[in-house]
Translation elongation factor EFG/EF2 domain-containing protein
Amino acid sequence: MTDSRTGVLARPVRGVKAYSRQTFGACVPTFGIVELDFEPLPEGVAASCEFACTAQPEPEPEYEKALVQGVMRELAGEGTEDPEGRRGGPVSARVVVRALKWHWVDSCEMVFVRLGALAVREALACVEEEREPRPIATRVRLFF
């Protein structure tokens, strides 16, 4: 998965896609789509997250901030109430957001926190299992 001495991502993982389906007929906002690239960083360089896209249908700072929060929290391996969250030492990676799509009614910040975390888990699994990313299609749970 990572180099145990440095906590650095061992190789690039590009095109990690996570999608949370809409819940039709319910009052729970669960829609979101993200695509992220993960790049290794030199030892000692802190993890970062940057945007190389414009959110659709238009920029939404709260959702962008929530995505970064989910990514950085999961890379740190701490501070998550998610029982399935990754545990372990921090992993340093440069994360580039390639796509972020949301819906006026059916999206909320927590969806993007969770999609960010799921994307990190998929990227680390790709490195560990020496494979390309698989699309993540889910319906994000807002509560445990």
